[in-house]
Write a structure and sequence with these properties.
By secondary structure, the chain is an alpha+beta fold. It is built from 10 helices and 11 strands. The structure holds flavin mononucleotide.
């Protein structure tokens, strides 16, 4: 690949995209594919990996792709390639989410430390300690979200937090009685998980005890926390955007990645929760009664301090060759 007369090593682009594959995604579905062209790389939603019973309107799929897009920009920057992004470049092809033009530019320390956070970040579904998240840290996370065009709203008022917990619970009840949802989840988690899906070693056995009622319960989860009666100390936040179209969802995913990587740099543990937004009535509760109708909720995020004990294991990813199509070298 040659850009502005300068040669860009294909292996560099490939290894940056391999690092970006560590981006979080709904049920670890990794619903993206990359097409590497002569001057630009293209991000597409991989519709074959869409989970229609879980994610009927495709929001989680596009948010996941947005996270992969931001991870890719971070990984490319650390490899000496700055990027300019054209989002939703083709009106006739809605699954073509972004065209990313590359420009050689030396990496600086910020690029390198952010890229290093990609490998340390994990979804941590355990109950967090009761140490408070300092307000300066919350401000920094909100700034990272704002830089990507999204809003990160901490839910601290007792009434709003109560309504959010009710929405999480109501969504859980609706999904647990939906056979199509249960079937989709079963083939994506526990002993069936391989290079996609979530292995049992990263799932809670009992969410009510371990995750304070906010994390998802999986019957074949292996992670247990002693029940010492302590409540979950996680700060609940809502990631939201001004509109609720695919472009906003893509930007929400980019903001999610920016927030998660910065939280990792700060030593904070995180856990995305999409469940309350996957069920229409719960999503409307979050929009109207938690955000007071001011913004469209895209994801709930638990943020806090992880309990002492074994670190969370990395969740496997698909081979990179499965995600990339290369043409016109
Ligand atoms: C859009 C989106 C929705 C998610 N929803 C949930 C969720 O509701 N509950 C949960 O425990 N994890 C959720 N996750 C986290 C994924 O399960 C996790 O990213 C994936 O299993 C890969 O693991 P890792 O984040 O540790 O690399 C979500 C992630 C994304 C990007």
């Amino acid at each position: 690949m040659t850009i502005n007369g300068r040669h860009i090593d294909q292996r560099t682009v490939r290894s940056a995209l391999a690092l970006a594959a560590a981006a979080p995604s709904v049920h670890n579905s990794q619903p993206w594919r990359w097409v590497v062209g002569p001057h630009t790389i293209h991000l597409h939603a991989d519709l074959a990996r869409w989970l229609p019973a879980t994610d009927a309107d495709g929001r989680d799929m596009i948010v996941s792709c947005g996270a992969a897009l931001h991870h890719a920009r971070v990984a490319l920057a650390a490899a000496g390639l700055a990027s300019s992004v054209h989002r939703m470049p083709n009106r006739d092809e809605p699954d073509h989410l972004a065209a990313v033009a590359l420009h050689p530019r030396p990496a600086d320390d910020t690029d390198l430390t952010l890229a290093a956070a990609i490998l340390r970040r994990r979804t941590d579904r355990r109950r967090f300690t009761d140490w408070e998240v300092p307000s300066a840290f919350i401000d920094e996370l909100s700034e990272r979200a704002a830089e990507q065009g999204a809003l990160l709203r901490p839910v601290t008022a007792a009434r709003s937090r109560g309504r959010l917990l009710e929405a999480i619970q109501a969504a859980a009840e609706a999904q647990e009685s939906n056979v199509a949802y249960l079937a989709e989840r079963a083939i994506r988690t526990g002993c069936h998980a391989d290079v996609e899906g979530i292995p049992a070693v990263n799932l809670l056995r009992d969410a009510v005890v371990s995750g304070g009622g906010t994390a998802m319960q999986f019957s074949d989860g292996l992670v247990e926390q002693p029940s010492d009666g302590a409540p979950d100390g996680a700060l609940l936040t809502v990631l939201a955007t001004g509109s609720d179209d695919p472009l906003s969802q893509l930007r929400a995913g980019e903001a999610l990645s920016a927030v998660l990587l910065h939280a990792t740099e700060l030593g904070l543990a995180t856990c995305p929760l999409s469940r309350p937004l996957e069920v229409g009535t719960s999503r409307r509760t979050v929009r109207d009664e938690v955000l007071e109708g001011t913004a469209a909720p895209q994801l709930v995020l638990r943020v806090g301090w992880a309990p002492l004990g074994s670190p969370v294991r990395p969740t496997p990813r698909r081979p990179i060759d499965d995600m990339i199509k290369q043409f016109a070298l």
